Amino acid sequence: MLQQEKIVKPVNTGLMGLGTVGGGTFNVLARNAAEITRRVGREIRVTHVAARQYDPDSLSSLEGIRVTDDAFQVVNDPQVEIVIELIGGCEPARELVLQAIANGKHVVTANKALIAKHGNEIFAAAHDKGVMVAFEAAVAGGIPIIKAIREGLAANQIEWIAGIINGTGNFILTEMRDKGRDFADVLKEAQQLGYAEADPTFDVEGIDAAHKLAILASIAFGIPLQFDKVFTEGISRITREDVNYAEELGYRIKHLGITRKVEKGIEMRVHPTLIPERRLIANVDGVMNAVLVQGDAVGPTLYYGAGAGAEPTASAVVADLVDVARVLTVDPENRVPHLAFQADAMTDTTVLGMDDVETAYYLRLQASDQPGVLADITSILGDQQISIEAIIQKEPGEGATDVTIIMLTHRVAERNMNDAIVKIEALGAITNDVIRIRVESLGH
Q1: What's the longest Cα–Cα distance across the chain?
Q2: Share of the chain above pLDDT 90, in %
C-alpha cells in the first residue's frame, strides 16, 4: 500500500523563467494536465516559479504556486523534484543546473548554448548523482529529433545529419528566393516580425545552428560535445543574384548544419549550402526547421516542424518532463544515456578541420570582359585538381565592363579550393572577391 501511494503522488516541479518558452510551458502543462497525467500515471505539478519579470495576463493561474525572483530558491527547495531551466544563456543557468544536480534533482532545459558549451561537465555531474538532464527542446524546437536519433534510430550507425536548424535564416533565404528581395531588406522584416533579435548575429552568422549541431553530432557519433570545433559561416554575403543563379542550375540555397562521419574523422560545419531542388529538405520554407538523418539500416529519414515559438518548444519541454516523471522510480543504470552512448563508451574520434572536408562548390566571380580570363581561371582550377561541372557566363549589361561567371565544381578538398581562390583573386582581371557556396547532394 505504501508503494502504491509513492507511485501515484504528484511530481513537484520548479520552473525557472517565464519568458516566451517558459510561459508556453506553464500554459501547456496547465491546459493539458489531465492528458499528461494519463500518459505519466501521476500528476506533474508546478509548485515553484522563478522569474524576474513576466506578464500574469498571458499565463494560466499562478494560484497556489510559490513565485520568486531568486532562482536559487527553486533549485535548493527540498520539495522540488524536477527543475525546468528556461532562463537561457550560460550564466547563471550553468550554476543553477549544477546546483540542482548537486541537490539530487532532475533537470529539463531548452538551453542549447548551455548544453553545447557545458554539457560535458553537466552530464558528468548528473551521472555521478544518478539524475537525468533532458534537453530535447534545445535542438529544433518542437521536433523530437534528439529522441529520434538517441532512441528511435538506436539500431543504426548514423552516417550523416543535415539540418535546417535555424528558422530565422531559413525565413530570410525563402523570402530572397520567392520575392527577389535583398538580404538586408528581409532581415529588417524578420526583426519586425520577432523572428530575429535586434542583434541578429547568433542567427544569421550560424552560431545558434552551431550550438545545435554540436549536440546532434555528439548523440549521433558518441563523441564529447565540442562546440568550439564547429566550422561556422553565415548567410549575410548571400545575394539575390546567388539565389537566382542557384535556381538556374537546379539548386536552392539553405543554411545547413552538417555532420558526417568519414574515414578521417567527423565533420561538423554550418554554412550556406546548395541543395538539389528535388530534395524534400530543399523545399522547407519560412521559419520551419527540418533535419535529415542517414542511418545505415533505415536509410534517409526526414523530421520536419516548428523550430521555435512558445508552444512548439513547450511541446518538447513537457515531453521531457513526461520522460523524467515516468522513470523516477527506475534503476538509474537503465536510463537512456544523456548523449545516447554510455558515459564510459564515448570516443575521441577526430573532428576534421575544414581544410580536410570535401564538397562540391558554387563559385561566383566578377571579371573584366577581356579575352583569356576564363582560360586563366580554369587553368588555376585544373592545377588544384578541381574539375568543373557547369559554367554560366552572363553577358555584361549595357555600358558595363565586367561579366559575371558562375561555376559549379565537382567534389574536392577545401584546402585545394582555398588555394585556388587565392590565386584567382590575384588575377588582374578579377574585380571582386570570389563568392563560394558549398554544394551537397544529400544523397546516399
Answers
A1: 92
A2: 84
Q: How buried is residue 158: exposed, middle or buried, by Cβ count under 10 Å (0-12/13-18/19+)?
A: buried
Name the DSSP letter for residue 349: P
Task: State the helix-helix crossing angle for 240-248 and 167-179, rounded to 10 degrees.
Answer: 70
Counting Cα atoms < 13 Å in the Cβ hemisphere of 368 gives: 12
Measure the CA angle with vertex 331, ends 12 and 96; round to 5°.
Answer: 45
CA separation for the pair 273, 362 (Å, rounded) = 9
Question: What is the value of pTM for the model shown?
Answer: 0.92
Whose CA is closest to 226, among 211, 239, 241?
A: 211
Confidence of residue 4 (pLDDT cuts 50, 70, 90): very low
> Domain spanning 145-306: which CATH class is it, in words?
alpha beta
CA-wise closest residue to 75 among 46, 47, 99: 99
Non-local (6+) Cβ contacts of 168 within 8 A are 190, 195, 196, 200, 203, 204, 208, 287
What percent of the chain has a predicted confidence (pLDDT) above 70? 96
Rounded-to-integer distance, Cα 238 and Cα 308, Å:
24
Distances (CA, A) of 172 to 207, 279, 290: 16, 20, 16
The catalytic position among 212, 261, 264, 394 is 212
Handedness of CA 74, 75, 80, 86 (dihedral sign): positive
Q: Specify whether 212 is catalytic.
A: yes
Domain-wise residue ranges, the chain:
2-143+311-345, 145-306, 357-439
Instruction: Give which of 285, 286, 181, 187 is closest to 235, Cα–Cα.
Output: 187
Question: The domain at 357-439 falls in which architecture?
Answer: 2-Layer Sandwich (3.30)
- Cβ neighbors of 368 (< 8 A, separation 6 or more) are 401, 402, 403, 428, 429, 431
Q: What is the pLDDT of residue 1?
A: 42
Indicate the average pLDDT of the chain.
93
Which residues, 6 or more positions from 36, have their beta carbon under 8 angstroms from its beta carbon? 29, 43, 44, 318, 321, 322
User: What does the pLDDT look like over 302-342, one tens digit per residue?
Assistant: 999 999 889 999 999 999 999 999 888 656 666 777 777 87
Q: Are 168 and 363 a contacting pair, CB within 8 Å?
A: no
* Annotation: CATH topology of 2-143+311-345: Rossmann fold (3.40.50)
